Amino acid sequence: MAFPEPKPKKPELPKKLVQNLECKQGAVRAVRFNVDGNYCLTCGSDKSLKLWNPHKGTLLKTYSGHGYEVLDAAGSFDNSQLCSCGADKTVVLWDVASGQVIRKFRGHAGKVNCVQFNEEATVILSGSIDSSVRCWDCRSRRPDPIQILDEAKDGVSSLKVSDYEILSGSVDGRVRRYDLRAGELYSDYVGSPVTSVCFSKDGQCTLAASLDSTLRLLDKDTGELLGEYTGHKNTAYKLDCCLSEKDTHIASCSEDGKVYFWDLVEGSLTLSLPVGRGVVQSLSFHPSEPGLLTATEGHVQFWREESHTAEEQPPGC
User: Fold this and answer.
1) Where are the WD repeats (predicted)?
2) What's the burial of 61, exposed, middle or buried (CB within 10 Å: 0-12/13-18/19+)?
């Protein structure tokens, strides 16, 4: 006798505050989960980069070597290396365990807003206010980039990398997708300066946030507008947006101290999460669970779903 499939649980959103990290690194410019979601990185306006266990609220290491505020960071797939970028125009490759700088890449003409590893962590990609995306080879000693993508007409604000694509958002109001296998460039005009871009987890869509306080979901292959999400405030700052771990919801920072969640399909506002008094500058969604990191002023908050209990810590935490 076949039993009916259990009804799938409604996706839960992270709205229970489980940790509040006082980062002590000035304003936190960006917060990023590592690949498996066990650790996170915070980028400070005091030139430092910090590695945390957000589940326990413990600081693991501080990385110092930038000459000005750190604006973005990313971890490699095996957690052995970090890359970061900042207002000192440099991109830095770090050894996680020793905290030492492995390489410093110089070549951007202005502050570097965003940084990503490729899948194998052999190349670092960086996007700058100088309107270019540069690709740096981590394994060679060459000081110059292996490739420069300079199609943007204004600063590159955001960058994401999949196994064969580069997605960039620019202040010129365009979302550009470089398909490396086909050697093609696809460009979608949003009309307002783009502050953040990301891929959906299923790889079918791209999401773009822009300074007209609107998020747009685009079909990756056709560029068709699938949905618009409004209600938050984003007119002056570079704020992050992302999709939840199962692509059910869209999340965005806001200048009114909240994080907003929309139902991806219906487009309706599901939750506005009060985070703090100031601008919520950055957010990062856990790769596999309903967990959210938010950064406002000098603090980082870790949110979990209502049903979460502390005993359910993933192994290795």
Assistant:
1) 21-62, 63-104, 105-137
2) middle
CA proximity to 124, closest of 79, 83, 180: 83
Residue 231 phi, psi (nearest 5): 135, -25
- Distances in whole angstroms, Cα of residue 117 to Cα of each of 79, 83, 169, 192, 209: 12, 7, 17, 27, 22
H helix or E strand, kind and range, residue 159:
strand 156-161
Task: Give CA separation, 27 vs 42, 89, 243, 256, in Å.
Answer: 10, 19, 24, 17
Q: Looking at the whole model, is its pTM more than 0.85?
A: yes
Contact 303, 18 (CB under 8 A): yes
Task: Name the nearest CA neighbour of 280 among 268, 298, 304.
Answer: 298
Q: Parallel, antiparallel, or unpaired for β 184-189 and 280-285?
A: unpaired
Candidates 266, 207, 265; CA nearest to 240 is 207
Q: What does the pLDDT read at residue 168?
A: 98
Q: How many residues does the chain have?
A: 317
Using left for φ > 0, alpha for ψ between -120 and 50, and beta otherwise, residue 167 falls in beta
CA distance 135 to 128: 12
- 261-299 pLDDT, tens digit per residue, is 999 999 999 999 999 999 999 999 999 999 999 999 899
What is the pLDDT confidence band of residue 317, given thresholds at 50, 70 and 90? very low
CA distances from 305 to 17, 57, 95, 258, 308 (A): 9, 17, 33, 17, 5
Q: What is the DSSP secondary structure assignment for residue 311, as one 8-state letter?
A: G
* Distance of alpha carbon 87 from the chain centroid: 17
